[in-house]
């Protein structure tokens, strides 16, 4: 993890949480669907001008989260310290709508699927994309 990105991430971690607006705007959001029943939009292929990472030797680890975290600030601080110490990028594999780590700047990948098998296939695809060998 690069020093500038690590410092920006650590500076964002506070125990305060933003107000949840989902109940207010949810009925007006056409994209909202029951968890696990989403379909990712089909998009045409585009060439990216550069890679996702500025470092070609970046190592990613995954963190599987099955339910929203009650202690998100504490978990974010521990993850940021772990990422800095081990010089890795943390990719959160979220099996729920809102993990709690989104506000701190972690990479969140939503795992979708109507059945456990479909969610497992989605997770395998995301792990392959980020080249994740270790999932905690």
Task: Please tell me about this protein's structure.
The protein is an alpha/beta fold and 136 residues long. The protein has one domain. The protein has a three-stranded parallel β-sheet, sandwiched between helices. Strand 1, helix 3 and strand 2 form a beta-alpha-beta unit. The longest helix is centred in the middle third of the chain and has 15 residues.
Low-confidence stretches: none
Quote the average pLDDT: 80
Largest sheet properties: 3 strands, parallel
Structural class: alpha/beta
Strand content: 5-15%
Oligomer: single chain
Q: Return the domain count.
A: 1
User: What's the alpha carbon Rg, rounded to whole Å?
Assistant: 16 Å
How far apart the termini lie comes to: 18 Å
How many helix segments?
4
Indicate the percent of residues in helices: 25-40%
Topology, number of strands: 3
Order of helices and strands: HHEHEEH
For the biggest β-sheet, the strand order reads: 1-2-3
So what's the overall shape? Answer: globular
């Amino acid at each position: 993890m690069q020093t500038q990105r690590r410092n920006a991430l650590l500076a964002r971690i506070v125990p305060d949480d933003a107000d949840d607006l989902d109940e207010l705007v949810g009925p007006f959001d056409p994209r909202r669907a029951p968890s696990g029943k989403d379909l990712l939009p089909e998009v045409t292929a585009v060439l990216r001008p550069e890679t996702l990472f500025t470092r070609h030797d970046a190592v990613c680890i995954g963190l599987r989260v099955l339910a929203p975290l009650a202690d998100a600030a504490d978990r974010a601080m521990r993850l940021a310290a772990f990422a800095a110490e081990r010089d890795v990028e943390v990719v959160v594999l979220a099996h729920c709508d809102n993990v709690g780590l989104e506000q701190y700047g972690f990479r969140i990948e939503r795992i979708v699927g109507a059945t456990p098998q479909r969610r497992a296939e989605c997770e395998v695809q995301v792990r392959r994309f980020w080249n994740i060998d270790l999932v905690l």
